[in-house]
Structure formats: C-alpha cells, structure tokens
Amino acid sequence: MIRLADANDHAAIEKICRKNAWDGTNVLSTYQAKCRDISNIDWQYCDIWLGESDSNKKTAQYVLCRMGQSFYLVGQPHSKERWEELHRFLSMHAGSTPKTRSRLLAESTVLQKYESLYPAMPAGKSVFSPRMECTCMPEMLDENSVVPSESLWRIYDILAQVKPDLREQTSRDEYTARMLFLKRGGAQFLETREQEKTVAVGAVLLPEQSDYGLIINLCTLPEYRNRGYAKKIVSALCREAFLVGKTPVLDCAAPELEPYYRRLGFQTVSQWGTRTLYQE
Q: What is the pLDDT of residues 114-158, one digit of tens each?
C-alpha cells in the first residue's frame, strides 16, 4: 500500500532514511520542512509517500518523495507485487508531454532492479553518474568572498542561464518558493561575488537527523569559469557540513565532472541514477 506520510510517520521515515543515508538526506530535509510548515503554505512543492507491506503490521519498505517534477526513492519494495504497485503509481504521475514528464532518482542498484522488472523506453533509460564523498576538512579559500545568498531569485537566474530548460520546467516564483521550502528544512545557500555581482552559487542540505550534508545547485556563470569560484563555494559548503558533524556528499551531474571533484578532495563511493517516467 502507498499512502501519504504525515507528522506521525517521523520514526518510520527516519529509520528508512538512516539505512539509506545518502538518498535519505534529501528526503529528511523535505520531510523536516513539511513538518515545520505549520500554516501548510508549501504543500504544493512537496509530497511524501510511504510504501508499506500488506501485513497487519504495515511495515514501511520505502519512502517516495516528489519535489517539483522529481521523484526520490529511498529504500525499495520487497516483493514483485509491491514493485508493480509502485510502477503503476509512478506511471500515473509521469506526465504526458516532454515538458511535464517527471523523473525518478535513486541509488543505482535500486534503479537497476526497477529496469530489470520494467524496461524503459529508449528515451527513458536510466542514466548513471558518480556519487562522491569528502572525508577531510578543505582549506578555506578567501573566506570573505563566499557569503550567504541574499536573494534566492538570483540563484534561479544564474541556474537558468546555465540550464535554459529550467525556465520551461518551472517559473522563477515557483523555484524560489521551493528553495525557501528547503531552507526551512535545514538548507544553506551560499554565493560568490565579484564587484557586487553574484557569479557562482551552491547549497547544502543539513537536516537534523542525517549524518550527511548533501551539496546541490552548484553553478558558475560561464564567463566566470576557470577562476576558482566553484572551488571556493564547494570548500565553504563542505566546511558548513563538517562544522555540524556531517559528511559532505554530492551527486555528480555528469561523469565527466568526477575528476574535477576528485581534485577538490572528493572520492567516488557509488553511483546514483535518474530515469524519465512515462505514462502507460
């Protein structure tokens, strides 16, 4: 059975997310934000479901979290029947056009299991990239040049310049509201400036219950690349994680970025994947 999670599911969600600590960091951050959203103003930005067994105990097997058009799967079904239930559920929420299609993100072995049961269309096959971890405190580079972001609007503008399809997927208002939602769940947003202009941005998710700090939204304006701005942002985000006792981790956006992050002190520990969802 798949059902919406609520504030009473804290123990079950934390248990699953701590067993799958990496993917669980993202979900714990959104769940923490939802529980703190007393006035329920951000309900449209995130949904969290629990996949349970059919036994009398209703044991939770996995957590599924929707953020925008992305579905994050933590854990996995324990039987073919539960996989079939999840597959039907995802297909129902897949979207019917290229602009509205959702994607599923999960640890590589989970997606590989899904693909073995339900082979994807050629355009929807899973794509895998490195998952990396930083194990030592990085050197702080020009500490004063990295500061908390004053405007989440600016973050969207920079991301949209580098990723034009972002404007097609979500509006400036919606994406900014989504970042405010994550901030409530423990996210910190940093930026680097040159002559008062924001040139690079990044964020780290730091939910209270997780052992990890998940680095996201790293981006540098093209005309300011190869000047060390991204390195400063990554170093600062890693320090924020270490200072609260968490290990900094990140999911490479593409395999070719792996050597770059290795030079910054990260090491590859596994893979993550994404699969485009289609309605059936």
A: 999 998 776 667 889 999 999 888 776 666 688 999 888 889 999
Helix (H) or strand (E) holding 240: helix 229-243
> Are 48 and 27 in contact, with CB atoms under 8 Å apart?
yes
Pairing of strands 247-251, 212-220: parallel
Eight-class DSSP state of 194: E
- From residue 143, how far is each of 135, 190, 231 by CA, in Å? 20, 12, 12
Q: What tens digit of pLDDT does each residue of 163-172 get?
A: 888 888 788 8
Secondary element (H or E) of residue 199: strand 197-205
pTM, entire model: 0.89
Cα 250 to Cα 9, 134, 204: the distances in Å are 27, 9, 9
- pLDDT tens digits for 192-242? 988 888 999 999 999 988 999 999 999 999 999 999 898 999 999 999 999
Q: Which residue pairs, CB below 8 angstroms and at least 24 apart, start in 139-146?
A: 139/235, 140/235, 140/236, 140/239, 141/228, 141/231, 141/232, 141/235, 142/232, 143/236, 145/192, 145/193, 145/232, 146/190, 146/191, 146/192, 146/232, 146/233, 146/235, 146/236
Question: Which single residue is written with the structure tokens 């990890």?
Answer: 212
Domains of the chain: 2-129 (3.40.630), 134-270 (3.40.630.30)
User: How much is the pLDDT for 72?
Assistant: 95
